[in-house]
């Protein structure tokens, strides 16, 4: 039987049922007390519950065609991890909007309409290509988040950092599942690359619309100093999007695979940090 999974044997895609006490943090600007940085990550969270359901559905559609038992097991792990992410970010989003007066129906409504259009007008293989593309984006963001030398959330609230790091680690573990399914069922290189361009546009648009809504509700939308700091946060050397540019472009190489970026050491570092935290709690 041909091997269809190319996730390293060492990497276990295991769902972790975690809950996070983030209510106090969400009531304030939890990222360095900065409105833009906080709203950027909060707006990303808004996209997750509906987006992750789309990911699960697009991968599950093709699971009957997967013959490799390893990839089948990874599909189950992928769906389990994404299911827990969906639950936690749904709680995150509802709590955030309740505490800060944001309109969750408005924020999710635009995304829901976009997903409905995608399901209506895109074929199943195009939907899977979109999922693989978005999984690449989340994987390279996860890599930046878990970078011990310059973690994305180093000035964030500890409870929020714990949630985002957990999410990042599991995104990194399953970063190749949708990609391997796509390749196993005959997805083309041309479609794969085109899907990333399209997915990037819609994701960035949704995040920016969410960010603008939040800053407007906070009555901080027209503060130029906030946007100046936000520009630096995203695009200055060391900025969030600036740091993602090179690994983002890797996706357009012929023959690319997500595990050509071997991030197992980052996963090991995160797991070791989890063990140390558990030991510290047990010692109290």
Gyration radius (Cα, Å) is 19 Å
**Count of helical regions:** 11
Overall mean pLDDT score?
94
The unreliable regions are: none
Helical fraction equals over 70%
Largest beta sheet, briefly?
none
Text of the CATH class: Mainly Alpha
Distance between the termini: 51 Å
Overall 3D shape: globular
List SSEs in N-to-C order.
HHHHHHHHHHH
CATH topology: Ribonucleotide Reductase, subunit A
Q: What share of residues are in beta strands?
A: under 5%
Helices and strands: which structural class? mainly alpha
Q: What's the number of domains?
A: 1
Give the total of beta strands: 0
CATH architecture: Orthogonal Bundle
Structure write-up:
With 284 residues, the protein is mainly α. 70% of the residues lie in helices and 0% in strands. The protein has a single domain, classed as Ribonucleotide Reductase, subunit A (Orthogonal Bundle), CATH 1.10.620. Helix 2 runs antiparallel to helix 3, helix 2 runs parallel beside helix 4 and helix 3 packs across helix 7. The longest helix has 32 residues. The mean pLDDT is 94.
């Amino acid at each position: 039987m041909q091997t269809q999974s190319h996730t390293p044997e060492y990497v276990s895609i295991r769902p972790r049922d975690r809950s996070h006490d983030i209510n106090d943090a969400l009531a304030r600007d939890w990222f360095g007390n900065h409105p833009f940085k906080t709203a950027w990550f909060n707006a990303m969270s808004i996209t997750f519950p509906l987006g992750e359901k789309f990911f699960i559905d697009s991968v599950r559609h093709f699971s009957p065609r997967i013959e490799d038992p390893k990839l089948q097991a990874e599909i189950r792990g992928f769906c389990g991890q994404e299911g827990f992410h969906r639950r936690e970010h749904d709680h995150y989003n509802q709590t955030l909007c309740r505490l800060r007066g944001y309109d969750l129906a408005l924020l999710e409504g635009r995304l829901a309409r976009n997903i409905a259009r995608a399901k209506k007008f895109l074929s199943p293989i195009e939907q899977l290509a979109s999922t693989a593309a978005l999984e690449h984006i989340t994987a390279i963001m996860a890599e930046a988040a878990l970078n011990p030398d310059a973690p994305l959330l180093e000035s964030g609230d500890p409870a929020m950092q714990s949630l985002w790091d957990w999410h990042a680690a599991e995104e990194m573990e399953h970063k190749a599942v949708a990609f391997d399914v796509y390749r196993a069922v005959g997805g083309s290189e041309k479609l794969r690359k085109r899907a990333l361009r399209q997915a990037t546009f819609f994701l960035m648009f949704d995040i920016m619309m969410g960010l603008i809504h939040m800053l407007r509700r906070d009555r901080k939308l027209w503060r130029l100093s906030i946007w100046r700091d936000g520009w630096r946060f995203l695009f200055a050397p060391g900025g969030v999007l600036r740091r993602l540019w090179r690994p983002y472009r890797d996706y357009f190489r012929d023959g690319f695979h997500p595990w050509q970026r071997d991030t197992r050491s980052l996963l090991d570092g995160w797991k070791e940090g989890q063990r140390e935290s558990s030991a510290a709690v047990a010692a109290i």
